[in-house]
Each structure stands twice: as structure tokens, then as C-alpha cells.
Amino acid sequence: MLQRLQSIPAISCSYMLVHVISQQCPNGWYGYSLQGKCYKFNTANKLTWQDARVFCQTHQGDLLRVDTANELRWVLNQIRSNYRQHAHYNGTVWTGLNNREYLTAWEWADGTPAGNFIPWNPNEPNNYRGREGCAGIVASGKFNDDQCSNKYPFVCSRDRGKLLNI
Known about the structure:
By secondary structure, this protein is of the alpha+beta class. The protein has a single domain, classed as Mannose-Binding Protein A, subunit A (Mannose-Binding Protein A, Chain A, Roll). The chain contains three helices and nine strands, in the order αβββαβαβββββ. The protein has helices at 2-6, 49-58, 69-83; strands spanning 18-20, 30-31, 37-47, 62-63, 92-98, 134-138, 143-146, 152-159, 163-165. The strands form three sheets. A four-stranded antiparallel β-sheet has the order 2-3-8-4, with helices on both faces. Strands 5-6-7 form a three-stranded antiparallel β-sheet. The radius of gyration is 22 Å and the shape is globular. Mean pLDDT is 80; it is low at 1-5 and 7-21.
């Protein structure tokens, strides 16, 4: 019997165990839909676009990325209710939308191409004086390109469930 087992070729198996941490948004983050993303509306901080991005990444997210027109409507409603009550709100909130490399197409901070549903202010984006490579949402709910060095409140987003390789 022992000789028979030794003659069976060895089979190697490998697998990857994937674990979803949570489908809930972390404390201080708000969800749009059950399978959607979580959002952090930063009303207390006014940062440059790059510093806002670092803040979001430190909290396991990135600057706001919007994937659908319905999601954008929800985000705009949240911005209106979360930011207008603060004295330092001047009408602009940073998003992840950018063209910092001055390419022909705008993209989100994570490299995802911007959709065709982005509502720009009239005559925007215009890259005024060649220095506007980042975009924010202004009080009208439209997007406007702006200098990345300006300091504004901002919105972070992240996937609701985060995958880990174990």
C-alpha cells in the first residue's frame, strides 16, 4: 500500500483567500447606495488639491470620483447641505477631477477617465492663464477648473467594501 501511494504524482494547489472587510462606511463617511462608495465631506479643512488628495489617501480613499449622473446628483445635494452652513465656504469644493498633466482629457485622481456627464460652467474648462489643472464643484453645482494651489474644502470617496489578500 505504501508503495502505491508513493507512485501517485504530487498535486500542488494554490489559492488566494479574499476577504471583504466591511460593507459599512467607516465612522464619519456617508454612503450613497448599498453597493456604492463612501464619501467624507471635509468642511473643516481648506487644503490645496494635492494636500486634500493626501488627506483622502491617508484615510484609505482618494479625492472624489463620480461614476454616474445619479451619483453626481446625490453628491451635489450633500455638498449643498454640508458646506453652505459653514462660514468659510466660498462656493468651491475640490473633487478628484484634474488635468494636471495638461493632457487633452480630464480624469479623476485615480486615473479613471471623466465621464461625459460632467456639467461644466459655461466656457469651462478654460485653463485660464495656463494654470488651471484641477476642478472643483462651485455653488451652482457645475464644475470649474481652477489653480491646484488654491485652498478649498473637499470631498473624499472610497469603495464601500475593501478587498484584502490574506
